[in-house]
């Protein structure tokens, strides 16, 4: 099963996260299938590769709670519903 989840990167006390599609059995810093976005909570910046995210959602990937909130805030699920 594939999940969309956060992968931590950055310095100590200044964490940034990559949003990745990764196999469930992999660790947090394990090898990702594809990087589909970037999230910086300090600056509240988000970059999302929308076509890649929609592709993984159509194939059955499950987002974690935090990633789900980020995608919902960006309006990805409205686009996902219209593609079905």
Automatic annotation (TrEMBL):
Keyword Magnesium: no
Biological process according to GO: mitochondrial translation
Keyword entries, A-Z: Chloroplast, Plastid, Ribonucleoprotein, Ribosomal protein
Gene3D superfamilies hit by this protein: 3.30.1320.10
Cell compartments where the protein resides: Plastid, Chloroplast
Keyword Zinc: no
PROSITE patterns: RIBOSOMAL_S16 (PS00732)
One MF term in the entry's GO annotations: structural constituent of ribosome
Bilayer-crossing regions: none
Similarity comment text for this entry: Belongs to the bacterial ribosomal protein bS16 family.
UniProt cross-references to HAMAP family, sorted A to Z: Ribosomal_bS16 (MF_00385)
Record-given protein name: Small ribosomal subunit protein bS16c
Organism listed in the record: Cycas debaoensis
Lineage: Eukaryota, Viridiplantae, Streptophyta, Embryophyta, Tracheophyta
């Amino acid at each position: 099963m594939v999940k969309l989840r956060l992968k931590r990167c950055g310095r100590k006390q200044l964490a940034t996260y990559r949003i990745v599609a990764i196999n469930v059995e992999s660790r947090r810093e394990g090898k990702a299938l594809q990087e589909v976005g970037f999230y910086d909570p300090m600056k509240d910046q988000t970059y999302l590769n929308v076509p890649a995210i929609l592709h993984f959602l159509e194939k059955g990937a499950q987002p974690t709670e935090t990633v789900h909130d980020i995608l919902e805030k960006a309006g990805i699920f409205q686009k996902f519903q219209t593609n079905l």
